[in-house]
Amino acid sequence: MKLGKLRRKDIPRCVEIEKMLFAGDDPWSARAFHSELEAGGYYVGAYSPEDVLIGYAGLAVVGGRGDYEASIHTIGVDPGYQGQGIGRALLEALLARADEVRAPVFLEVRTDNERAQELYRRHGFTQIGLRKRYYHPSGADAYTMMRPAVSEQEVG
Asked: Which residues cross the membrane (predicted)?
């Protein structure tokens, strides 16, 4: 597996993976992925040795120098490739980008997705809130989690 910048030609495959992962909710459309890339989001793809997209992740960084915040918008791994460290590698790539600008990182995760929550906790995230009925149309709740900026971690 190799990581690289998510390519526009990968968007149909992203949509395919989204439909597998989030069938009970509102999976992202091709338009949503195009909008994120056009907005300048930091998107990474995980590729098989045959150059097939098997996972993706996206991060938005907002604010100005010394006052950045980052938000993980999505992480998805093809179910056939889960459990192989791909999600962890994608998350670490996003966190490395956030660390470059010393930004705290926020995300939402389904309250019933314990596997993802544990991954985030292992990478310094803590639960800071609950969003009732966050996911649509399922109405599933989400935890808001946050990881302090790297500079804050070093001080503590």
From this structure: none
Strand order across the 53-62 sheet: 2-5, 42-47, 53-62, 69-77, 105-110, 142-147, 126-131
pLDDT tens digits, 17-76: 999 998 878 889 999 999 999 999 999 999 999 999 999 999 999 998 889 999 999 999
3-class DSSP assignment, residue 92:
helix
Residue range 2-155, CATH number: 3.40.630.30
Q: Give Cβ neighbours of residue 45 (< 8 Å, ≥ 6 apart).
A: 3, 4, 5, 6, 7, 10, 53, 55, 56
Please indicate, yes or no, whether the overall pTM of this predicted structure exceeds 0.85: yes
